[in-house]
Amino acid sequence: MHSVYHDRFIGAIHNKTKIKLTFYSHEDGCDLVRLCAPMDYGIFRAARDGVNRYHLWDYESDKVMHNLAIVPENIVLMEFLTDTFEPSGFITWTCKWFVKRDWGHYS
After folding, report:
1. Cross-sheet strand order for the sheet of 17-25
2. Which residues partner with 17 through β-bridges?
3. Predicted TM-score of the model (pTM)
4. Burial zone of 5 (CB within 10 Å; 0-12 exposed, 13-18 middle, 19+ buried)
C-alpha cells in the first residue's frame, strides 16, 4: 500500500530534499514530528515481514540509530521542503537501495 505522498517522496529522494514528517509512534503512543531526509521505499530487511516502508534519516532522533522505517498507515503528514541534504552527511554503510537514484558514490 502506497501513501498519498508516495510519488512526492520518490521525487524528494531524487531531488535530495528534506521532509518534515508527522507519524504515529506506537512506541510513544502519540504523533511525532521529525525533520528527515528520504532514503528509500521498500521492505525493512530487519523486520522480515515483507511489508514496504518509507525509510528516512531522522535528523532529530534521540536514539543512537537515526533511521526511521514507517509503514504507510502510520504517516500522518509529509511536508516537502525546499532544503536539500547531502547523502555524505549521514550514510556510512554500503547502500542497497530499492529505489534507483543518482547519488554518485551513494547510489
Report:
1. 67-70, 52-58, 30-43, 17-25, 75-84
2. 84
3. 0.91
4. buried
